[in-house]
Amino acid sequence: MVKSKTLKENKDFRRLYYRGSSCASSCLVTYAAKNRAGSVRYGITTSKKIGGAVERNRSKRVIRAAFAELEGRVKGNWDFVFVARSATSQVKMQVILEQMESQLKKLGVIE
To answer: Most Cβ neighbours (<10 Å): which of 36, 52, 80, 109?
Structure first.
């Protein structure tokens, strides 16, 4: 199992928002860009529009679990930002996994 690092700096999130490629679906928005860090890094964003703390934390937990299953298939060094949408907290992890996989394929990150 590959252990990826998390993005914590605001400048990293902003770089992906402005210079990264994006792909959206009903439950998830994904931003991706190559990095020079030598590893896969990711960050998760949830806004207060999603709901209270319970809904936001569940959204982050589901996204983190879905990415954990796919991160071994990522080829190269990439940065990702996953933005939760309002439907994210109501769906099962399998739905998020399918949407994330199709988005990463569309962005050319996995095969």
So the answer is: 80
